[in-house]
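Write out a record, fold above all:
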Amino acid sequence: MKQFQGRVVTPGTVTAEAVVTTQGFNTLASFQMALQFGDKEVKCGDQNNEELHGKSLLAKALCLPQTIGSTTGGLVLYCACAMEKNPACMLFGGHIDSLAAAGAVLADVWVDGVTMPVVDSLGDEFLNYVKDGMTITVKENGIVEVEE
């Protein structure tokens, strides 16, 4: 097991299976099929992200460097949480952008019964280490444990 220390954006504890991208994560393109067309498995719909396209994001530990794309990104994250189609957590290698942070914080405050811990500033070493299928545990204090 390896530990990484990050900054807590939204609190919570969770253990989930990792899905990893080293590319920017387009929130709208990734969640569009689930939010608009009822994809119950919440498969990533972003055809430009070959690392995630077609993989389920539902209840996974989404490990990413940053979000990219539309200014709707925050609203999309909020809606994914409100519809219970969200990842278990989002773990950023770098700093979270203001739109993604807004969506995560609004979901944390406004959506009852749904927790999606978000931790950023985990570093390049985190993204280089973590692989799909590894078990991730997020602690309240921003410690992220990765097990093979």
